[in-house]
Amino acid sequence: MAPTSNLQLKPGTAWSDAWRRSLAVAPEAFRDDRVLNLWASAWQTEGRALPATSPVDGSPIAGPPRLDATTAQQAVRASLDEHRAWRHVPLPERKARVTATLDALTEHRELLALLLVWEIGKPWRLAQADVDRAIDGVRWYVDNVDRMLEGRTPLAGPVSNIASWNYPMSVLVHAMLTQALAGNAVIAKAPTDGGVACLTLASALAVREGIPVTLVSGSGRDLSEALVRSPEIGCVSFVGGRDTGADIATAVADLGKRHVLEQEGLNTWGVWNNSDWDALGAVIPKLFDYGKQRCTAYPRFVVQRSQFADFLGAYLPAVRSIKVGHPLAVAHPDDPLPELDFGPLINAAKAKELGDLVSVAIERGAVPLHQGVLDEARFLPGQDTSAYLAPVTLLGPPPSSPLHHAEPFGPVDTIVLVDTEAELLAAMNASNGALVATLSTDDPATYARLSPQIRAFKVGHGKPRSRGDREELFGGFGHSWRGAFVGGELLVKSVTDGPEGERSPGNFPDYHLMP
Question: Which of 11, 15, 290, 352 has the fewest beta carbons closer than 10 A?
Answer without folding.
Answer: 11
